[in-house]
Design goal:
Layout lengths: L2 H14 L3 H13 L3 H19 L9 E5 L5 H8 L3 E6 L2 H10 L5 E4 L12 E7 L7 H14 E12 L4 H9 L11 H10 L3 E8 L13 H4 L7 E7 L1
Parallel strand pairs: 1-2, 1-4, 2-3, 4-5
Antiparallel strand pairs: 5-7, 6-7
Helix pairs in contact: 3-4
Organism: Candidatus Danuiimicrobium aquiferis
Pfam families: Methyltransf_11 (PF08241)
GO molecular function, one term: S-adenosylmethionine-dependent methyltransferase activity
Length: 240
């Protein structure tokens, strides 16, 4: 990773680490009637569904996943609570420590740059990242995705979640977030291009998070809406 860029990202997240989850939850509740917990659980459930489609449901407890850019480790912890062993890596030691204070003895998280993952090739059944790529330079996006593919078993899942730049709420969230200054959001087609450039075969792509928490009773409609580019976020999943 470009050292200057990496140091800037690390410093930004270190500054906000202690109050990150609480501040973000309060801010999302006040402005959009939703919470970080709701959003994280939705993405964790998407991952669980993907893993069930890719593997026998009875085998989920034998899987090992990697969360790249895990932050406080919230999503990795949700997977662990569902008997899916998950390890997280993040550039910010303070973000990891903040998460461990909130949910000790959940996911194991270690400090590492996304461009040099400290694991053997083919170590994980699934490797995913959540809203990390818009913080990376284009060269580091390629390097990170190559590393994610390298540490994933052949045929295993590589998944990217990102903000949808076509959604006005996502645009506002990113614009007002102190952690997202000067970032450039990626379109779903851009992520597909990155997959193609790194030899990852796309198997699923969809938009998610159409409804805030107070409208969650309508979530069943997402099945019929997931190709409509107005969900707050999207995912692209492929096979290594």
């Amino acid at each position: 990773m470009c050292q200057v860029k990496a140091n800037i990202i690390k410093a930004e997240f270190d500054v906000h680490a202690n109050e990150y989850e609480n501040e973000l939850n309060r801010w999302l509740n006040q402005r959009f009637g939703t919470s970080k917990t709701y959003v994280n659980r939705a993405k964790a459930q998407e991952l669980i569904t993907l893993l069930k489609l890719n593997k026998d449901s009875n085998a989920l407890g034998k899987l090992l996943c990697l969360d790249v850019g895990c932050g406080t480790g919230a999503i990795a912890s949700y997977l662990c609570q569902n008997n899916i062993k998950t390890i997280g890596v993040d550039l910010s030691y303070h973000m990891i420590q903040s998460g461990q204070k909130c949910a000790p003895n959940q996911a194991q998280c270690i400090v590492s740059p996304s461009t040099r993952l400290p694991f053997e090739s083919g170590f994980f059944d699934c490797c995913y990242t959540v809203c990390l790529f818009h913080h990376l330079s284009e060269p580091d996006q390629i390097k990170t995705l190559r590393e994610m593919k390298r540490v994933t078993k052949r045929g295993g899942l590589v998944t990217i979640f990102e903000h949808n730049p076509y959604n006005p709420v996502s645009q506002l969230i990113v614009k007002l977030s102190p952690l997202d200054k000067n970032v450039r959001l990626l379109t779903k087609s851009k992520v597909n291009q990155l997959f193609s450039e790194t030899g990852i075969q796309t198997v699923l792509q969809k938009y998610i998070l159409f409804f805030p928490e107070f409208m969650s009773k309508l979530n069943y409609l997402e099945t019929y809406m997931n190709q409509w580019p107005m969900g707050c976020q999207y995912l692209v999943a492929g096979r290594a």
